[in-house]
């Protein structure tokens, strides 16, 4: 399902960040013609800034950080979002925006919340010492319920398992049918095997009317079947074939002959 079909970036006379990054200066429109759009480009191209601004324009919620409208790290994105117009086929309020750092912030926040609940339970045991077990149980119920909710959604805790496992747990618990998901370098905590599992999860959610817009450096994610790939290093913007991407060519060449590259280091 394609919810968001097109964005238009209005030209600005400003010559400062974020209006002076190559992507914003050179791209006026971007079409979304398939459920999965992959954005590729070197560091400094403006992929992250673009996705942040798009998320603000869409009104996405974030994972593991403040409101997208108050997060101080997104002030530049809010400024640029005023110049972005959206075209929808079917507007959706479902979905979220995720940066790699948001995942780690979220995992830490959930761990802190769980520990605070456990500490509160211990305090209640002291406060209710000498009172009936029934009274203690009633007082503990809200805290126990919250802890069970965290465990039900994320197992023993996002901080207990590996980053890759935790990331997949988070995604599986947060993805909902009919959503628009804007993801900035989601491969960061994932091993190659986990990236393949992540592709499988995306495919499953696409079948449930989800749309994904993903900025990535991973050739594995770039290989998602039938994805629309835009190379943000080249203007004017046009759809790019997987085999033609420099990321893919370089990775293939390196794996075929790593010594050729490493001997010059």
Provide structural commentary:
It is a peripheral membrane protein. It is found in: Cell membrane. Residues 33-235 form the AAA+ ATPase domain. GO terms for molecular function: ATP binding; ATP hydrolysis activity. The chain is an alpha/beta fold and 265 residues long. It has a domain at 4-100 and 176-262: Rossmann fold, CATH 3.40.50. It has helices spanning 22-26, 47-58, 75-81, 100-127, 133-154, 163-174, 192-206, 219-222, 246-256, 258-262, and strands at 4-9, 29-31, 36-40, 84-88, 95-99, 180-184, 211-215, 228-231. The strands form two sheets. It has a five-stranded parallel sheet with strand order 5-6-7-3-8, with helices on both faces. It has a three-stranded antiparallel sheet with strand order 2-1-4, with helices on one face. Helix 7 (192-206) links the parallel strand 6 (180-184) and strand 7 (211-215). It is globular, with a radius of gyration of 22 Å.
Element layout with pairings:
Blueprint (H helix, E strand, L loop, with lengths): L3 E6 L12 H5 L2 E3 L4 E5 L6 H12 L16 H7 L2 E5 L6 E5 H28 L5 H22 L8 H12 L5 E5 L7 H15 L4 E5 L3 H4 L5 E4 L14 H11 L1 H5 L3
Helix pairs in contact: 2-3, 4-5
GO molecular function, one term: ATP binding
Subcellular location: Cell membrane
InterPro entries: AAA+_ATPase, ATPase_AAA_core, P-loop_NTPase, Rad50/SbcC_AAA, Siderophore_ABC-ATPase
């Amino acid at each position: 399902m394609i919810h968001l079909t097109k964005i238009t970036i209005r030209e600005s006379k400003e010559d400062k960040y974020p209006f002076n990054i190559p992507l914003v200066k050179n791209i006026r429109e971007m079409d979304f013609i398939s459920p999965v759009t992959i954005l590729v480009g070197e560091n400094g191209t403006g992929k992250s800034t673009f996705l942040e601004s798009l998320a603000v324009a869409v009104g996405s919620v974030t994972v593991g950080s403040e409101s997208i409208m108050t997060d101080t790290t997104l002030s530049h994105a809010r400024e640029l979002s005023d110049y972005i117009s959206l075209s929808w086929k079917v507007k959706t309020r479902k979905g979220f925006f995720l940066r790699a750092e948001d995942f780690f912030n979220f995992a830490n926040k959930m761990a802190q919340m769980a520990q605070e609940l456990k500490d509160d339970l211990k305090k209640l045991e002291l406060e209710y010492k000498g009172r009936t077990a029934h009274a203690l149980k009633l007082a503990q119920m809200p805290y126990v319920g919250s802890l069970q909710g965290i465990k039900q959604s994320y197992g023993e805790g996002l901080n207990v398992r590996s980053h890759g496992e935790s990331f997949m747990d988070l995604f599986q618990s947060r993805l909902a049918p009919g959503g628009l998901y804007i993801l900035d370098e989601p491969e960061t905590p994932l091993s190659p095997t986990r990236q393949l599992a992540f592709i499988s999860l995306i495919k499953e959610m696409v079948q449930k009317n989800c749309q994904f817009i993903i900025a990535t450096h991973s050739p594995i994610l770039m290989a998602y079947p039938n994805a629309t790939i835009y190379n943000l290093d080249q203007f004017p913007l046009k759809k790019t074939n997987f085999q033609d991407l420099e990321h893919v060519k370089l990775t293939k060449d390196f794996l075929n002959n790593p010594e050729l590259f490493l001997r010059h280091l």
